[in-house]
Amino acid sequence: MGFCPQCDSAEPLRDAGETPRARITTESVPLATAGSGNGRDRLETGITEFDRVLGGGLVPGSVVLLGGEPGVGKSTLTLQAAGALSSGGGRVLIAGSEESAQQIGLRADRLGVHSSGIELLTSADVDEVVAVADKTRPDVMVVDSIQTLSANDIGGVTGGMSQIRECAARLVRIAKATGTSVVLVGHVTKEGGLAGPKALEHIVDVVLSLEGDPDRGLRALRSFKNRFGATHVVGMFDMQDTGLIEVLDPSKAFLSEWDMDVPGTIAFPAVEGSRSVMVEMQALVTESAQTPPRRSFRGVETSRVHQILAVLTRHCSLEVATREVYVNVVGGWRLGEPGCDLPVALAIASSALDRPLGSLAAWGEIGLAGEVRAVPLDLRRREETARLGIDTFVAPSRGERLRLADAMTRSGLVM
Fold it and tell me: What fold is seen in the domain 252-410?
């Protein structure tokens, strides 16, 4: 109209609406009393290795993301934990959207899980899962798997980023509201992320990964994030026909088939959290008909092995540039600490020179200048070496200046 019909003013119109204020639906509480909660302690699953990685058991209202490659044993582990929980009086709800009720029942029969405290729900609708959890209020709810759930009011395909995030957010809300511990099972992607490239790790409380070598049956349960306990804690299992069996002494399991008289093999006392694990490291150096020669590394970081090869060539006059090099950590164990540098170097040199190392363990970090530096927890590594009866070891002491060439001499490779 160009003017106000009430006052005949030609001034422009202005929005005079009031900003809505949020309604207060919750009250603040003193920090001193916030930790008391409802008096419920951690809920032990009944599987010692699982509880140790969790930090003592499941915390009420927590959300745990369990990831791993398809077929590694995630469903088996959660079903065994559900059986142990229900046998101790806990109430468990299994929301399975990947398999039918008959398929889950067949796995339960194979594992010997026959408890009346386990309820089974087969639905791919996250709202149905939330509604059943809100109605039954179980102690623990297992969702297998988060990629197959979907929300009808959210766009995108099942398993897409938007669906995964929204489904996980609704499950997190029901966990915090009811105090139910929720375990989300998720497959790893081609890039190695859990249920997508770190799409859920920031909204859950605990991130676990089940890894292993399918050929040997050994499984490692690792903790990468834990708001209620230590991280980088590892539990060991052995996959058998009757399910996952706890391995209380993984060092003996890894070294059970160690042939110390073969060139290219050495023992390394790795330390994961509070546990020392002696693993066997193997290396193979052979002639190559390809240019460039092949390189294959399993269980160790590729960049570290390339760095070690360069140091061996430059400071130890070991020619490996035109030869194929393979490095493997037996049993599917994955090493990320720099202490594995020295055993990798000695194993490669042993294979290249065709000289066995015998009963030998080693640890130490290798620098680009050819020096070998001490690594933390040296005493714990020495104790593990002595416990397993390994005769000798090569490792720098704190403050000692050790060169890689000197370490090769101590190992008997260079006379």
Answer: Ribosomal Protein S5; domain 2 (3.30.230)
d(CA 114, CA 388): 40
Give 115's Cβ-side CA count (13 Å radius). 21
pTM to 2 decimal places: 0.79
Q: How far is CA 66 from CA 195, 213, 281, in A?
A: 10, 18, 28
Token reading at 94: 């299994």
Tokens found for residue 51: 């509880």
Whether 252-410 and 40-248 are alike in CATH topology: the answer is no
Residue 136 CB neighbour total at 10 angstroms: 14
Phi, psi of 8 (to 5 degrees): 60, 20
| Cα–Cα distance measured from residue 2 to residue 159, given in angstroms and rounded to the nearest whole number | 54
Q: How far is CA 203 from CA 39, 167, 199, 304, in A?
A: 24, 12, 9, 32
Q: Contact 304/341 with Cβ under 8 angstroms?
A: yes
Compute the average pLDDT of residues 165-179.
94
The SS3 of residue 412 is: coil
Tell me which fold the domain 40-248 belongs to: Rossmann fold (3.40.50)
> What is the pLDDT averaged over residues 159-186?
92
405 φ, ψ (degrees, to nearest 5): -65, -40
CA distances from 129 to 78, 123, 192, 241 (A): 17, 7, 27, 31
C-alpha to C-alpha distance for 331 and 324, rounded to whole angstroms: 22
Residue 181 pairs in a beta bridge with 140
Residue 75 burial (CB < 10 Å; 0-12/13-18/19+)?
Answer: buried
- 316 near 349, Cβ under 8 Å? yes
- Residue ranges covered by each domain of the chain: 40-248, 252-410
Quick one: pLDDT band at residue 323, thresholds 50, 70, 90? very high
Phi, psi at 21, each rounded to 5° = -105, 140
